[in-house]
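Re: the multi-chain job from yesterday

Posting the exact lines I submitted so nobody has to dig through the queue logs.
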Amino acid sequence: MTRHPDTVADAIAHPEREQPYAQLGLKPNEYADIREILGRRPTSAELAMYSVMWSEHCSYKSSKVHLRQFGDKKPDTDKLLVGIGENAGVVDIGDGWAVTFKVESHNHPSYVEPYQGAATGIGGIVRDIISMGARPVAVMDPLRFGSADHPDTHRVLPGVVAGIGGYGNCLGLPNIGGEIVFDPCYQGNPLVNALCVGTLRHEDIHLASAKGVGNLVVLYGAKTGGDGIGGASILASETFDDGGPTKRPAVQVGDPFMEKLLIECTLEVLHAGLVEGIQDLGAAGISCATSELASNGEGGMHVRLDNVPLRDATLTPEEILMSESQERMAAVVRPDKIEEFLAICRKWDVAADVIGEVTDTGRLVIVWHGEVIVDVPPRTVAHDGPVYDRPYARPEWQDALQADDPGLLARPVTAAELRDTVLTLIGSPNLASKTWVTQQYDRYVLGNTVLAQPEDAGVIRVDEESGLGVAISTDCNGRFAKLDPYAGAQLALAEAYRNVAATGAAPLAVTNCLNFGSPEDPDVMWQFERAVTGLADGCLELGIPVTGGNVSFYNQTGQAAIHPTPVVGVLGVIDDVARRTPMAFRTIGDVVLVLGETRDEVAGSEWAHVVHGHLGGLPPNVDLGAERSLAEVLVAASRDSLVTAAHDVSDGGIAQVLVEMALRENVGATVSVPADIEPFVFLLAESTARAVVTAAPEHLAAFEASAAARGVPVRRIGVVTGPADDLQVDLVGGESVLWSLDELRATADATLPTLFG
Amino acid sequence: MARVVVDVMLKPEILDPQGKAVEGALGRLGLEGITSVRQGKSFVLELDGEVDDARLAQLHELSGSLLSNPVIEDYVIREVTA
Amino acid sequence: MRIGVVTFPGSLDDRDAARAVRVAGGEAIALWHGDADLLGVDAVVLPGGFSYGDYLRCGAIARFAPVMGPLVDAANGGLPVLGICNGFQVLCESHLLPGALVRNDSLHFVCRDQRLRVESASTVWTSDYEVGQEIVVPLKNGEGGYVADDATLDMLEGEGRVVARYLELNPNGSRRDIAGISNARGNVVGLMPHPEHAIEALTGPTTDGLGFFTSILKGLVEA
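And the result, structure tokens for all chains:
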């Protein structure tokens, strides 16, 4: 029995019909706005489109007022080829090459269905990158879970890791880095963020716009099914009189093979010059693609929804519009190029259907079974949605939290205590080896991976002739952000910036994934406003622009919000990847040096967290000027081949750095704690703007001069000893703290396999 | 119109780690007395016309070359309904 | 020396295999799965990846591709063929090699730098190695467990057709730690690890993999 769709004619004829806008997530004022925009009630299909496009996830309605700072405070740079507002930002890296990168979230779906949620998160971010005209070349996965020993973490983590690996490996994208963080605050709200980076020549940049009246709109890729249409089924059940099917699957299921075909097919049609505009279908599927393409172009589009190829013939038009079936793209193609376009799709066995054309009416009109079911101004759907300035106020517990200084917590003092403390820390879930996870990811495919985890940043060679490459790191310390969101965002930026510079790449651009609780909670909104402001101010001071990013709100279970977690991704450029700086101790006799200043700063540290379960005080001091100087030293040192290894200091302090540098190639070192620093502070404080490097004796003078010239403190602390030698830390007074590499490795390697193996 | 179901199972001597993983999970769910689990695949084919001897021979050919790998798998044409 | 590299839908390491051929000094020729034409190449590489998404069974659908018709005939006639990872799976599914590859016994995909021992230098793809030579080559697969019945395994061992064996750790449950085998003639070799990812110090753990590609080029010159 065919159900008569709710048409525009019906909407005009029956203005008084009750509509389930609240169940679709629209507020009364929003529903009223839609009626005013249209001059009538919306049809069911229009209601579906507005409800999904005006949702927080798609419209950024609670974050826009603050995010505009990224544009307002944009540092002057001529490297930004495409800025915020497109699918992903594009930066010039030289020699006619450009790079596009972005990080996005797929948090809630991953809690519901870990494998598919994470898999489709990778799928979605990869499609954003190809829609810019780029070939995707690498992925990264910043992940956050609840406590490592909680049963639900055991449900979520293995599935998420398997999903990221299963999808990314099958696509042929190396996974070059990411994070795994455990904290109880994420128990009910794990964070699955996914980053993709792609490369392209300047002339290949494509934008999501539908230009050229009469040009055709082609939907290609997978067929459309009932994935992710939870809300639309309410409409289906609303108007079904014969009690037809109402339950539709909410979980999107990914097909990485289809996406691999989509990548090859898309790059081929782009390089053949057959595409005027291109858009991927992500959240809100066809609703989003058509309204965005139309509003970015001539302003009008006519769509025949019947032409959408369906996996499920029982879908209603509302469901088709809201479907989030994966692996679909939309292209705008000139009529004289359509045959060639379709031929390439056939070559790759990718279904392609012309579903509409570009018009100059300024309206998005969608027809179903010959009747008009959507007739809207596309900008009102895609861009001019509601904008809220949510109330925010400093939480009344913030002062007490900041006053709760960890200074009185019992500290390890003796050699034995320091030895045990470091072993405890390196075996703790956040600091332990992540190999159990990262070995489920292909790091080699495409043959251009120069550095990958556990190195500071992932480094990818872009040009095989010249060696031009990029480095990317993603970082965020949610505990720091809880203590002070403004500083916390800057600390995340500083850490990613420092990680990129440590490999020898000059930081160039920023992306971000802002994971927060509910925007309707003034405490959370305050955290968000502070974090965005901190990040915008920080980017301006460092001279690197935000190119795009993502906001994930509502990461909250009841009253308990996650720590504010502004994940920051920094991308840098390196002229010749052959000169990159890896992190391992390697050559006997190399001198070990510390750059930067170590202060008694342990608030929010791994030590305070693991040993005392304490979170309080003020996070480590941020000094972006010092970060900038340190980065210059590290980049110059790489370029001039003055250092043999570099590793930034962050979670776990210098102790963690020394252990990681020793275990990387199983080579030990002996270092001394400087006389003027308390050993505990030297080893475990988390002060910023620091790095540990090794340098051959013949380059020491030049390196130290370079640091001095930029005002970066530098101290020699020891020497690389030899393969399989102990890691030894000498204390003032003659005692030594010693760990054998075997025991360090056994401790660090055992944790994750024991928990999740 | 006919409907054919072909079941494919790993040969008994081939290690089945997926079946073992399921077996382990049963134990954790408190289900006792299940001594072995092996995991296989089921193919449901819809055909035009009926399944005569010639068609059946084709289905055996298909089952033995594409649907299963005879080196490691056995197949059974379990069900043929008109 | 023209070495064909086949691209199936879903092949991933075809570009890397082509690069390895070039670095070794040969000319890489792209072969399309849909064309039943080997373009007169002197040897063929079936690369790694997830042809057809690994659906049904790894390599089970690719083995029926049009290019496989002439390839099987040519291989039976002596054309050198190297199947890497997914390529190895295709060779087993098309019965150019005995046995099969099944799911890793750990049930996890594993990517690691794997130590191997080269067991045979008598094939056209391994003549540039010494018997017993230990090499480190990346391994990355989810379905890499080599299985065959005891009679087949004994035959492979007895006839010197085990080409490479895992050392230190068996990453996938392969019987007898077998990482690669050849046919009786020695022109068809299947290998689970990825030599094409170990050809450049900058991007690989070693350059130990280059030998597979220099072997075939030297062999072709001498032929």
